[in-house]
Hints:
By secondary structure, this protein is an alpha+beta fold. It contains 28 helices and 30 strands. The chain folds into six domains: 3-69, Alpha-Beta Plaits, CATH 3.30.70.100; 74-142, Alpha-Beta Plaits (2-Layer Sandwich), CATH 3.30.70; 150-293, no CATH class; 310-390, Distorted Sandwich (Calcium-transporting ATPase, cytoplasmic transduction domain A), CATH 2.70.150; 485-509 and 628-740, HAD superfamily/HAD-like (Rossmann fold); 511-626, Calcium-transporting ATPase, cytoplasmic domain N (3-Layer(aba) Sandwich). Strands 18-30-29-28-19-26-27 form a seven-stranded mixed beta sheet, sandwiched between helices. Strands 10-9-11-17-12-15 form a six-stranded antiparallel beta sheet, with no helix packed on it. The chain has a six-stranded antiparallel beta sheet with strand order 20-25-24-23-22-21, sandwiched between helices. Helix 6 packs parallel to helix 9 and helix 18 (527-538) crosses helix 19. The two termini are 50 Å apart.
Amino acid sequence: MAEKKEFIVKGMTCASCVSAVEKAALKVEGVKNPVVSLATERLVFEVETPIDESELVERIKKAGYEIEKSKKLRKISLEVEGMTCASCVSAVEKAVNKLDGINSVSVNLTTEKAAIEYDPSLVRIADIKKAVEKNGYKAKSVTTKTYDRDSERREAVTRSYRRKFLFSSIFALPLLLVAMAHMFGIPLPSIISLEQNPLNFALVQLFLTIPIVIAGKDFYLKGIPNLFKGHPNMDTLVGLGTGAAVGYGLFATVQIALGNTSYAMDLYFETAGVIIALISLGKYFESFSKGRTSEALKKLMNLSPKTAFLKRGGEIVEIPVEEVEVGDTLLVKVGSAFPVDGVVVKGNSSVDQSMLTGESIPVNIQEGSEVVGGTVNLSGTVEIKATKVGSDTALAQIVKLVEDAQASKAPIAKLADIISGYFVPVVLGIAAVTFLSWFLLGYGFLFAFSMMISVLVIACPCALGLATPTAIMVGTGRGAEMGILFKSGEALEITHKTKAVIFDKTGTITEGKPVLTDIIPLIGFDKNKALKYAASVGALSSHPLDKAIVQAYDGDLFEVNDFKVIPGQGIFAQIDGVEISLGNTRMLKDSDTARKNSIELSKNGKTPVLMKYNGEPVCLFGIADVVKPSSKKAIEELKKMGIKTFMVTGDSVETARAIAKEVGIDEVMAEVMPEDKSKKVKELKEMGYTVTMVGDGINDSPALAEAHVGIAIGSGTDVALESAGVVLMKSDLRDVVNAIRLSKVTIRNVKQNLFWAFFYNVIGIPIAAGIFYIAFGLKLNPMIAGAAMAFSSVTVVTNALRLKRASL
């Protein structure tokens, strides 16, 4: 049996390089079928006996390229706790990337997970966790119970922010009242009056501020140390801004105690206290909203029951679903969800698959029917034999696929990531320049100090960091609820650019199985009698066309003798001494009537099958792979969207054109060999189209991979599903339209989020720095800056949540 070997080849730049490497590899004895991918820089070939790898390396190097053995990489997902903004994401990614053996790392702020691909021979998970923790964050491995922990942890975080806000508000409101009373003419008790007891006035504010600072301790214990680690983030800005305000307040209090009572007019305690309270409120709303972005995934997770009823001997035992093994017989009661994937071995029922596939009509099942874990048994108790358990079940695979998509980054996110990486250091620089500028212009320390704090507090990179992942997360979740699975953020983004859709015919536009559509009697032969004869002979055949005739007949069959098959012609048998034959158009030479009808059937996309009775043509059957009811409507919708439609098939030109005409396809590519489908995709790409390929079979896999977006329908083969970027759980082509529309609204939402995130900072920072003060007297109070910053990220997350209700 041939074994596959894989190597990495560096230095290739074009198709000529690919050809050179393949030719060099072929010169090594034992190397078979070498295939080089320019995109992945991989050389893959088959060997049946050991080869001289040193010779292979030498020949590739002689051809002008570098080669090394491909490493067996492993993918893991880590929970990362403690991240607050895009700068945290950048810090974690940089820390992990510094380790040897890391191939890729992608951190998602919304899900608080890091998707990491690494070489286990060079680095261990423990090393990755240490690198993350060394930078001030906590890292945990994702397990099968992670989603329960996720929900609990998110709720705990949300409750924590709520407590912090309520606690800090209890002190912030009286603090604000005391500090601002003199500005609004509100009298204070003489013991804490600004005029009569300035020291007490300062001390009461200090004592009210201390609990608030304790509530916001993370800004100081995490944010400020991150500055010295070289990874400043949002907490750093808030910590520096409010810390500076508290520090100045302490300095002013000391000055008042020494007799300089003028300092009582500007203490800044209320600035620090109110900012921390407002940011805690913003964090609470943000955490609450972020929890709602993963509701679709939680719904999927909750589809699977926690326990299963195992049939052991004559007993029924309730066990945790994790303990179910392949081959176990399970009892599933009415109203219960199937715990795992399996095959029905006893009973019949109907199944609700709507939560998994989006299909509302129940599906009938009986002995031999396959069932999917998470779907609901509606009408009868059944017994199933478990075929897939744990992470192998369809539901687990779907959840993993959605999770991977949510953890991935869309290309549109790169701009925000790049900017976020430089954002906080730039803001720190702007804050310093702001302070120095106003101070040197003679506006005094307090004015310059106030401007600096406003800049530090208003400049929050959270909105930038959340703009893309929240929209991607809600979009992929919405898709999962509809039975549309995007396998990556990139697939979700590119889908909306689609300008041409290529459909495979069989099993995609059509049902994928032949059906008897026409019975045309010749020379007055009885139609029903002809069908009975044909079904009786066809019942002994395995040919799909013969099966279509058998399935169309419902009744008793004749006894058949002397059955035989003549390849290329048809089948022959004796029934009550009469020879009955079923065959293709080669048998038509004796009948002009049959030939004319046959031509007409072919024009309509149907395959003619002739029946002869003792050598006399007596009936013509038309068999077709019928079009799915949804196909015509889907193609109409695509054309309304300005998308050009194509059909590629190995069928004859006549059959292909007939199907294309029926559903409204723009152009047909007929008589295409399976291996040439990807070439057709490539041709359209070279013409400038953004191409989406829709298919379901093994022979569609190369074309699905070649297209900008590959869409595999869920009834297709595993290979097709692996090659595609989008998977449709239903075999309904209207979901191709829905996938494109969902991509459009999601990317529009991302762009809105990015616009407001950039716009907020572009406008907010200059105003906070006082750019309009000299001309218009406009300056931003630090407390207002804090409020604006706190709600910027809430706005972005709330906008993303609109996708849950967006009309497609």
